[in-house]
Each structure stands twice: as C-alpha cells, then as structure tokens.
Amino acid sequence: MVRELDARLEARKPIQAVVGEYWDPHRDWVFWEYFGPTFTVVEEMPPAGVIDTYGFNLKYDKDIDLGRSL
Asked: Which residues are CB-contacts of 60 (< 8 A; sequence separation ≥ 6)?
C-alpha cells in the first residue's frame, strides 16, 4: 500500500481509498508496510536464491495489483 500511496501522490490522484485500507484493512494483503521514522531489524537473513526471489516477486505483485484496485 505504501508503494501505491506514493505513486498516487506523485501523480496527484486521490488517496482516500488507499489511506482507508491502510488504517482499516479489508483485503488479503501478503506483506505489511509501515510508515515511520525508524524500524527494527528482527532477523538478518542470507541472500535469497533464485526460486525464493521468484516466489517473493509473485506475492509482492499480488499486493501491487490489490493496491491499484483501490
């Protein structure tokens, strides 16, 4: 959602639907992105392999499509 919000702000498009979904989600999101001035690293992971990267991209693309549909 953060990516979609950024794209809409840059394009000067309405953001109400994205903001509403951010604060009160009703869709089946795979990843959660948060606004904030800091973040905490929970765990360091080794670099992902090709198959894992491909799977991640499929899941993240699903969220991108959901964001665009708002």
From this structure: 30, 31
pTM of the model: 0.68
Average pLDDT over residues 9-26: 94
Q: What is the mean pLDDT of the chain?
A: 90
Does the pLDDT of residue 36 top 90, yes or no? Answer: no
CB 5 within 8 A of CB 21: no
What are the Cα distances from residue 67, in Å, to 14, 41, 53, 56?
13, 25, 21, 17
Judged on CB neighbours under 10 Å (0-12, 13-18, 19+), 15 is middle
